[in-house]
Amino acid sequence: MLSVRRFRAFSVALGGWLLPHLASAQDASVTAEPPAAVESEHVEQARRLYLEGLEHVRQAHWGDALAAFERSRALRPHAMTSYNIGACERALGHYTRAHEQLRRALDENKAAELPPSVTSDAQAFLDEIERLLVHVTLVVEPAGTTVTFDGRPLQPAVVAAPSAHSRFVAGLLPPGRGGVVPNGELEVVADPGAHVITLSRQGYGDVVVNKTYRPGQSARLRLALAELPATIRVSSNERLAVVSVNGRDVGLAPVDVLRPAGIYHIEVTKPGFVHYGADVRVMAGEESALRSTLVREKPSILDKWWFWTAAVAVTGGVATVTFLATRSEPAAQRPPLDGGTLGWVARIP
Amino acid sequence: MGRENSLSGALLALLGLTGCGQEPSALPPYGEVLVEVDTNLRVPQTLSRVRFDLFDSQRRWLVSRDEATPAADDFPLSFSLYNDSPDQRRTAWLRVRGYLEGRLRDYRGEQFAERPEFEAPAVSQSLKEACRDAPPLNAGQSGALRLRGEAFGGSQLSCEAAGGGYTKRTRSGLAVFRLSVEVPARYRVAVTSAQPGVEWASVADTVLSLRSNCEAAESELACNDDEQHELDNLAGVNQELEPGEYFALVGNVAPGPMDVTLQFEQPESQSTEPVAGGGELLDNGPRLLEHGVDVTPQSEPEPHLTVDRLLRLDVEPQRRTTARVLLDGECMGSMADLAGGRSCVDTEAELLPVEPQPLLPGRLHSSSSAVGTWSKYQSQACASDDVPQAHPELHDDRVCVSGGTFVLGDPTLIARDPDDGSPERLATIPTFLMDRYEYSVARYRAARARGFVPPDAGPLNNFEPVTLDTDDLTRACTWNEGLDGSSLFPSQDALPLSCVSWLTARALCDFEGGRLPSVAEREYVASAAERELESTYPWGEQAPTCDQVVFGRWLEPSRGSSSCYDALHAFGPSAVDAEPWASFDRSPCGVVGLGGNVAEWTRDSHRAYSDACWQSQPHLAPECAEDEAPLRTIAGGSWRSPAAGTRAALRIGGAVAGVDPWVGLRCVYSVGTP
Questions:
Q1: Global pTM?
Q2: Residues with Cβ within 8 Å of residue B600, at least 6 apart in sequence
Q3: The complex's ipTM?
Q4: What pLDDT score was predicted for residue B267?
Q5: What residue spans define the domains of chain A?
Q6: What pLDDT score was predicted for residue A13?
Q7: Facing B32 at nearest CB: one of A323, A329, A337
Q8: A134-224 and A230-292 share one CATH topology?
């Protein structure tokens, strides 16, 4: 709580710093704009919004000022507008966003639209913000996990991390579904203060973590998602049918079997009925229902003596004729392998 | 007739034509090893499947095959490996695993593990020693210690109880942590876990004292009993501390050992510890590939109940040989080290480097098998004079149990550790004597008369007859004694002694010249002794009913009524030899009441079968023995158990100083004990 109060006081103090630059921004924006003869309606609207933003700043309405500057920039981008957006974000305590806007202002200043004092202040703000930002080394397991900070996905950083792992910035992207982060370690640059970190992955239980970081803190956070078991629900049209999973009896149908994700061979058996067998693939956290239909065994034609007698006679005749018609000189043969009691031979490559 | 003759003639002609082939020319044979696998274990009681995994010389996995061997005459098993090269010797690695049907675990790569060493946590024997050996903790760290059950002389902690009104004083030894403070701030020092836990709050309650001088009680800065409320058993304090060294002393209000974890927290703690999830990252190899497709089996034999043998076979070209391998019972539970090329041959837990397997010339098929010949199956028989004279009125007669080897544990008993019945293991039990009946009230009275003094308050004395009282379960305690030492209710003398602590139970068995049974001894009698196949219940496979076994006799507000209470209006235990229960709840060797009536203390520390305490144990007489264990195992079911609670392998944990009306004891004795 102490640190949160400290941030709030800090943000209010920023208002006093911002105003002088806003005044110069107004001048600069006017001088940098094209002649009135070629100004479009858009430019006129952009200037009106810009002035509206300045008015909000004077009253310390940072949110309203930010909205006005953003609408202005949408109509006509300008380095000074970006600078003021960055300054408003800074005043609101959105340091990652302030950092991005101030950097953008300097990038947009190719035509030297910003007075030197503004570029120097922008650089000073960037240096100051970099000391305030929090660096969280996040270790996420398993691969394929999506991460959000405060309900927003992470954005890959323009500036690479000094270490080998990837760097992301929290708070820049609009609220939405998390993006998949790389496997292993990643660095997240975030505002100081309280954050809600959410991890999710299909088949795993969500992890929601509340963390509070001091300005400039470097922290390491290891988050692992626990795999949800899969449920295989096996039912049958027959009572007292025995269910087995991978050869192990698990009870009488209907039965729920909790297992890790994978492929399972399900058999449902009952004396007097044809065995039912199926392979089921279940994903973690998934519930898979398998209804087995057991069919009463019927005496098969294969059980009739006359069927086999006839089959042997026909097969023997055909084989004999085929052999006589096609036989050739016998090939050289090797003595047979033993195979033992299992009748199994395996070749060693 | 004429037509039949012509048909016969045609057939003969056909046969003659087909038989007129030339003799094929002979090629030399392929190099071949006939692998013959035998075992000295019992089939199918201890081994009923064999898995073969074949690897090439680089130990790339070539093939996997799993064979059911449900009958003893399936052994010896044999098959052939062959080398089709005309002139090159080829080498294969063969892993042969004999195991029991259904005892599988998910395959997650080789998870080879040597048999672990186990060392019980060190316990300080005096305050001076505890202060000297106190583990250092900095802010943000936590530490764990075990404290002994018996108090240090004159060093008890005392604190006002949560809610006030009285003082709580420790009656155990103390655990001491050394705290190092570098920054002046408000710190939090708290016991974050205690074992026994809050479910044993009456006999397991922590008191915490924060001192600047470890051995000086007057240097105490803060003291706490229960931080949250009086039913909590975790103590904690918040204290402003200047830089320096401090000591946190933790004790138990009951005279029982305890495992405690203490957290020393930073001011404005910014934890970077793992906060969620778990799971382990494992090497997933080797893998079995078939035409580039991963067909690795999803499961593998559970190593604790597997004979795992690794062979190296050098197959010469065009030569026929035989390799013989015995899956020796001594090697059950000793996992082979595939990567290191080591496996057990014939000595328990000893892994030897795999040398090229000796090959016999020719393809030789054995005509006999070694199934069931393992020496540990042979046990000392009981002699008629091994069992001493009994006193029928005390129900103190003993049964001689012929030793043997069995599978300890039950994979169908699925519970949170440490109660889970897995992983199973092989256990060899030497011949011993066991009380036929649970230790009775009359027998305890006789022991008192002979001079027995309990180490604690002794069994809880119930001044009322055993009665149903839904608010006070101690009314079901069976021990009763008037002020003059006489029996208050002689009709209850044949009831099993209950509401007795582990400390008293152990002392009683020592007094009787015996000892508490180990978990393995008790389960052996309940499930395996004098049986061809192990049974689920002490009496066999049949689920119990109310007129067969004393179970399910409770009526409690939190649990409702139970089946046998409803059926018989019976509550609490029956006499140890009461019929019809004594005739049914009886093991084949004659021990009564292993399934129900009262559950019984054992001498083992209550730890999971996966714990190093169990894993470090040999086949012979395994037990998880620790001098100062916070929990001991209670085995078997009771009048308060559901039907499933009467199973032979059931076990739960109990605090050593705790007493319950459904827990009693019986003793075991070495053969020859008078």
A1: 0.66
A2: B438, B517, B522, B634, B635, B636, B663, B664, B665, B666
A3: 0.80
A4: 59
A5: 4-131, 134-224, 230-292
A6: 28
A7: A337
A8: yes
Burial class (CB in 10 A: 0-12, 13-18, 19+), B165: exposed
CB within 8 Å: A330 and B21: yes
Give the pLDDT band of residue B233 (cuts 50, 70, 90).
Answer: confident
Which residues make Cβ contacts (< 8 Å) with residue B75, sequence separation at least 6?
B37, B38, B39, B43, B69, B369, B370, B371
Specify the CATH number of the domain A4-131: 1.25.40.10
* pLDDT at residue B318 in the model: 93
- Mention every residue, 6+ apart, whose C-beta is less than 8 A from residue A36: none
Torsion of CA B557, B558, B563, B568, to 10 degrees: -30
Q: Nearest chain A residue to B81 by CA: give it.
A: A346
Is 3.40.630.30 the CATH classification of the domain at A134-224? no
pLDDT over 60 at A5, yes or no: no
Place of tokens 């803060």: B222
Q: For the ranges A19-23, B420-424, B595-599, which has the lowest average pLDDT?
A: A19-23
Q: What is the mean pLDDT of residues B263-286?
A: 56
- CB contact (8 A) between residue A227 and residue B279: yes
Alpha-carbon gap: A327 to the closest alpha carbon of chain B (Å): 9
Confidence tier at B672 by pLDDT (50, 70, 90)? confident
Say yes or no to pLDDT of A184 above 90.
no
Q: In CATH, what number does A230-292 get?
A: 2.60.40.1120
Q: Tell if the CB–CB gap between A324 and B83 is shorter than 8 Å.
A: no
Q: What is the pLDDT of residue A246?
A: 82
Ordered DSSP codes for B475-511: GG------TTS--S-GGGTTSBP-S--HHHHHHHHHH
